[in-house]
Structure formats: C-alpha cells, structure tokens
Amino acid sequence: MRGERILAAALAAAGSRRFRNRIAGQAARYWSAPTGSAWEANSHWRNGIGDQAWLEVGDDHWKIYETFARALNSPSPNTVMEWGAGGGANAVAFAPHAQRFIAADISEENLDECVRQVRATCTTPVETRRIDLACPEQATVGLAGSSDVFLCLYVIELTTDTDAVRAILEIARTVLAPEGMALVQIKYHTSDRRTRGFAGTAYDRNLASTTTFTIEEFWNLAAECGLTPRLITLVPENRLDSRYAYYALTNPAAVQPAPPDEHLLDVKYTEFAATFNADVADAERRAARGNYISRREGEQPSTTDG
User: Which residue ranges does the record assign to the Methyltransferase domain (predicted)?
Assistant: First the structure.
C-alpha cells in the first residue's frame, strides 16, 4: 500500500488534472452497475454484508440521528432524502419514521434494491432519483427545500476529491427545508500519515479511503457551503471499518423581516399627518396672500391715464 501511495502521488504530481479525471471516471463506472459480490458488499446490500451487519448499519445510524434530533429539538421528519442509498440499510431504519423517503444513487440496481427492502419493511412511499456524477444536482430538480432530513452515510470517503464533497454539501443545503438537518458521515484521518485518504492507481483498490478529512477540516468545509455545524460524534471503530465521524449540520432559516411595530407606525403617521396638514395650511395661506395681492394690484389706476 505504501508503494501504491507513492506511485499515485507521483502520477498526480505529473499530471494532476488528467489523473483526477481518470480516477473520477473509474469511480463513475465502478458504482454505475454491479460487478460481483464485492460490489454488493461495498454497496451495503443485505446479501453483501450479511443480515446482522446490514441491520446494524441502519439501527446505529438511526440512534445517532435520534441523539442529534433530541439535542437540537428537531421535530419528527416528514420527508427524508438519502444521498447514496445503496442497498437500503439506512432506508429501512428511517423510512418507517417518515411520511416520504427519497432515495438517490448512481446505480439503478441499488435504487431497485433499496425500494424493495423499504416496501418489505413499511408502507412509506419511496421516490428514487438517479445520480449522474457529471451533473449530480440534476437529481434534485423540483426538491428545493423539500426535505427535513438529508442523509449521506458511507459515501464521502468514496468520493474522488474535495470538489465532489463540496457538491454534496451544496446539494444538502438546496434540498433541506429551513432548520432541516443533514446527517453526514466522513472518515477522518489523524496525525498518522497512514490514515490519510488517497486515490490509488486504480479506484477500486482503495475506494473506502479515497477521501478523508480531519475533524475540523470537514466542519469548516460544511460551514463554507452554507450549512451550520451543530454536533459531532465519533465512532473510532465498528464492524465495517474505523475512524468514522458523524456531523449534524443544519440549514439556516431564512431571515424574515420583523413584523411592523403598530405603535411606532401610529406615532409616525401622526407626525406625518401633522407635518402634511401644516404644509397644506401654509401653502393655502401663501396662495390666498398671492391672490389678494394680485387683486389689489389689478384695482390700482394706471399712471399713464389722461
């Protein structure tokens, strides 16, 4: 792995844009369609990681969400959207508590499996959105401000660079209702260089650790994207992997103008009326004086007569 890290760094330095584009293309092809049992495990299908692990994924994430929601006094969600729904492990834990569930994924097979698992669990309606990595925001057309909860779990570490992560956070900001919560998980790295994520020479060789952040790096990135970081919890290790950080990010409420102060309006109106009436009275006096002077001047005899 160390040799591959050095080689990947050398390739990136020699032609960074070309290298990034190549890895991004490999990632898009990898996730777009099943390639075997490893793909189903990485997509967290029930038959890919086994019943117990699959159920734990959703249950653990629901418990983290409940803890965050209680701390933030968040109401029960009406609409939940998951970005990267995979095989439905999270969907089956969240959908029963919502009135509407929206599953977004790159793979049509993942979306079909997610819907199948939710329908086997509850009656909550499920919508699907196919993600095109070349234009991911297209998957959110018509969904602006529609979601109370946005989930992005076991996805960030699979992205190919920070720009892709930034795009996801901006999508979360778009689809969340004011004060809605994004529950986002990352894989964090420490001062140990071996924990830092990197894109290998082939995407599928290191996909689960392609992109990592320090705790504060991701906190700051979320804030840059217009979300408000509120809470964080760490899971140093679980059945699937290690160094997981979960963030509660909220969408700021739009600033509403303050309601008018009726008393102040009355005072200002009285002042205006008094000023207006005084101005009118003054104008009438000036007009009357002008008319009087005009009549007097018209009545005086001309000095050129006789």
Answer: 80-180
Cα–Cα distance measured from residue 63 to residue 236, given in angstroms and rounded to the nearest whole number = 16
Task: Based on the fold, state whether residues 236 and 139 are members of the same structural domain.
Answer: yes
Q: Give pLDDT tens digits for 59-76.
A: 999 999 999 999 999 999
**Same structural domain for residues 231 and 265?**
no
pTM: 0.78
* Residue environment code for 100-125, b if the CB has 16+ CB neighbours within 10 A, otherwise e: bbbbbbbbebbbebbbebbeeebebe
Residue with tokens 């979601």: 147
Domain that holds residue 291: 258-306
| pLDDT exceeds cutoff 80 at 19 | no
Residues 266, 217 share a domain: no
pLDDT of 205 reads: 83
CA distance 135 to 175: 16
Do residues 156 and 272 both lie within one domain? no
